Amino acid sequence: MMTLSCKKPARTAILLSFILFLILQGVNLSAQTAGGTLEESAALRFVFYNAENLFDTLDDPGYDDAAFTPAGERAWSFFLYRRKLLNLARVLLHCGQGRLPDLAGLCELEKRGVLEDLLRYSPLRNQGYELIHFESADPRGIDVGLIYRPSRLQPVSARPIRITFPSSGSRSRDILQAGFRLPDGQVLHVFINHWPSRFGGEQRTAPLRLAAAECLRGAIDSLKGEDPGALILAMGDFNDGPSDTSLQWLIADGSLLNLMLPLMGQPGGTHKHAGHWGILDQILVSPLLRDRKAWEAGPVSILSAPYLLQEETNQTGHRPFRSFAGNAYQGGFSDHLPVFVDLHYYGREH
């Protein structure tokens, strides 16, 4: 795969990227903004994507963002930042497969402002999206957030869930919980996750991810205590795979179903480390989203389009085409691949 050179004029690169986006996307965005009736809009599409260090160019107090400034190690310029926003919008729209995603959960966001810029300076502009974001205690200053279409999903609640760790000195991203009223009047509770990374060793950091799983489980148990029929969709970069202890414990009592399990054993994944693919980005749902009484979650898809992949340096396969290799700008998208799923409406008597 060709890597765009940073030596070309940045303004030309951003223009070419935008033109290429419009050519390859090939969708009529203006036709996707109307809500329509429930029958006309029976499927809702949910996307999750790790945006890989979506920082703006400002050196903000309280954020560990010095590297992502024009004078920083990564020489992060206004034009490279805009190009990153265009790349992100291109991926989200591709996940829509010809229509706008109804909700997209995102992680590795510096602050609320980068989501505002995504909705202001990309083809997502004027498409009716709104956003939800809370500042977290992550030491790097990165958060989770989401964008949604209020014409399709009406927000009724939102809050951050602070993760409590066994070690008092540990900090990480909050879990974002948001409730949305579906077109038939039911409420869907969405959880956006970005659990602690494996940096420092998978086994040593495993208790941190188990602590995140316990916090998510606690919030879900609280919902089910008030409403046993609560509809739940949890998605994110869990930094563990479906077979790891944290995810297995999360689904052990049957309160959640991991939609990624059928993909295990198949080629590929959402993230590649040390030459091996893993499924770190996942979508889980409550059983009531699989019983075909009202809404049903369809199979999960991983978007592995060729432009999102880069040949390995040893020519033994491909990996996600990321924005940076170390401090060197690559012009890519992310070190993760996005996942998406549809919720289909069948009616209560189906």
How would you describe the overall organization of this protein?
This protein has one domain (44-338): Deoxyribonuclease I, Chain A (4-Layer Sandwich). Helix content is 22%, strand content 27%. It has five helices and 19 strands. Strands 1, 2, 3, 4, 13, 14 and 19 form a seven-stranded mixed beta sheet that branches. A six-stranded mixed beta sheet has the order 5-6-7-8-12-9. Strands 10-11 form a two-stranded antiparallel sheet. Residues 1-14 and 18-41 have low confidence and may be disordered.
Short synopsis of the structure:
With 350 residues, the chain is α+β, with helices and mostly antiparallel strands. It is built from 5 helices and 19 strands. It starts with 9 loop residues before the first helix and ends in a 5-residue tail after the last strand.
Give me the secondary-structure topology.
Blueprint: H1 10-25, E1 43-54, H2 78-96, E2 103-109, H3 112-120, E3 130-133, E4 143-148, E5 154-161, E6 175-181, E7 187-194, H4 202-226, E8 231-237, H5 245-251, E9 257-258, E10 271-273, E11 276-278, E12 281-285, E13 295-297, E14 301-302, E15 309-311, E16 318-320, E17 324-325, E18 328-329, E19 339-345
Helix pairs in contact: 1-2, 4-5
